[in-house]
Design a protein that fits this description.
- By secondary structure, the protein is mainly alpha-helical.
- The protein has 2 domains: about 200 residues, Cation efflux protein transmembrane domain (Alpha-lytic protease prodomain-like, Up-down Bundle), CATH 1.20.1510.10; about 70 residues, Alpha-Beta Plaits (2-Layer Sandwich).
- Helix content is about 70%, strand content about 10%.
Amino acid sequence: MTKETKTQIATSVTASAVNLGLGLTKLFVGLVTHSISILGDGINNFGDVVSNAGAAVGFGFMHKAPSEKYPFGYGRVEYVVSFLMAILIVVVGGVFAYTALDRIFYHPVVTFAWTQFGIIAATIVVKLLLALMFGLTFRKFRSEVLKAQTLDSIMDAFITLFALTGLFLSRYIQFPIDALFGIIISVVLIVAGFRIMVPAFRRLAGARDEARTVGLTKLSEAQNGVESAQVRLYDFGKHYAEANVALRFSDDADEETRKVALEKIADTARKNNIIVTFTEYKEEV
């Protein structure tokens, strides 16, 4: 197991354990204060426990060596994990919205205490520290799952801030303000979930890998003697891709110039985990 895999798994497992503690803490405070926004925030943390654990499993699979059944490796598992994480976020947001709406029509009195207020405020700091941990790991080992976890942790910190504000305002406002804040939180969750879900689904459905395709096209067209390039890239995860590249050379490009261009493209692409096969250039109709 590589250092990258070990670091990614350790980061996700740590986050899962921390979120379990945060979820239990918020569940306790929510039950004591009867605050739906705090309860909902706690449920969101339990969702993070599952998503972080799933990410750890995903990291373990996506870096496995290719096998006879999976000759291109397991890199696309990352897209599956991201998609499942997004579904979980959307479901939690939907359930939370339903509960918050119900609380508007029927709600017990919210009980405020500075002790519980301080406990929930401390969880915001913990979430921001988790976001920092994910962010630093993402900067070292680029991964869509780590990026999603970073954004999710930052979003959770703001969600908790909203919930805490609702708890505080409930001291002065008769209207179930915590339920209103709960609805806002649920909308944020659902929108964020879809923002993660759509790109992951596009990758799973075989959508064009814009970044690598454009990058390989620019690399090809930057070579001496190359007038234009056609690139078709097959995405097998962040660590492996295959591409068919067709080049149109200028009429004055000799054999040596063409050979150098082909070698430079293939070598540079290989360093970026892309295996290139050169094909015949076809004029577009």
